Amino acid sequence: MLFEFDSDQRLWQETVRGVLAKECPLSLVRGVVDRDADPDPLWHTFSKLGWTELTGPEETVELAIVLEELGRAADPTPFLATMTQFAPFAPDLAVRPGAVVHDGVTARPGGGGWTLHGTGRHVLDGDRAENLAVHTAEGVFLVPATAVTARRVAVFDPVLHLADVSFDGVRVTADDRSAADPALARHLALTGLALTMVGACRRVLELTLEHVSSRHQFGAPIGSFQAVKHKAADMHVAIERAGALAYFAALTIAAGDPRRREAASMAKAAAGECQAVVFRNGHQLTGAMGHTWENDIQFPLKRAKAGELLLGGAAEHRALIAEEYQHAFDV
């Protein structure tokens, strides 16, 4: 496996970053929060550019590049939930927003099918999805959003959509059951979150470096002070480590490598550890300015922190990795 982008991948990264610089600046993100601007045109832009067609395992690295850049831009659309959680179960439906209910719903057999009951909590983009993939003990079922009740819940990332999705006697049949591998879908979901967090952390570092380069104390930019350099360097090292593991996880999915389960957990754990360093140092180096609503650094900071809380944090995934290796040694 190669751990550096080839020329085509570098061009793809530059293209994606250029599109987002034009179509999704932080001013747009702030508009979504402050003025309730509609992010749907941005979603349509992604769709027209073919980004919603990156649904095959062989395209995972190209999708990973998009996800990192969207994390860097604090993307306000449902792209993350649709492409990394929903699309593995229904790639043909990924041209429209989708979401996944991971737990909280039961499927009762009867009448030639099943009846779904329960409530999925904190479903990413569950309130604006047009279709849902629902995990149950009987399998994963595809359900139109019109058949459920979704209520957005408050979250500290003002751009992120989380919702409680309730099922009250929703009927499904065998034709509604997805044949996709839930384990592989979870690996992609974890990898996608890790890449989003890496992108957000990278943007925090960029904004922090801009601040310490322009802020002067004692007649010199504070970025020239040794203590500031050390903290910025720690942020950089954490981001590069997490980024390497996230792309390794993407490569294992693309290659059908059996190590993808451990790689996905390693990526999520490293991204969680990374955001802790970046969040702490980013806030400290930007001082009181970084705590104000007017400062745009809040958006990538909150996106990185929210990613840590979704699908298990760093401690949980470190424990899973340790359990895997303990089992291997016992065998």
UniProtKB/TrEMBL annotation:
Keyword ATP-binding (UniProt): no
Domain Acyl-CoA dehydrogenase/oxidase C-terminal: 192-324
Keywords carried by this UniProt record: FAD, Flavoprotein, Oxidoreductase
InterPro entries the UniProt entry points to: Acyl-CoA_Oxase/DH_mid-dom_sf, AcylCo_DH-like_C, AcylCo_DH/oxidase_C, AcylCoA_DH/ox_N_sf, AcylCoA_DH/oxidase_NM_dom_sf
Listed SUPFAM superfamilies: Acyl-CoA dehydrogenase C-terminal domain-like, Acyl-CoA dehydrogenase NM domain-like
Names of the cofactor(s): FAD
Pfam families named among the record's database cross-references: Acyl-CoA_dh_1
Highest taxon in the source lineage: Bacteria
Family: Belongs to the acyl-CoA dehydrogenase family.
UniProt-recorded name of the protein: Acyl-CoA dehydrogenase family protein
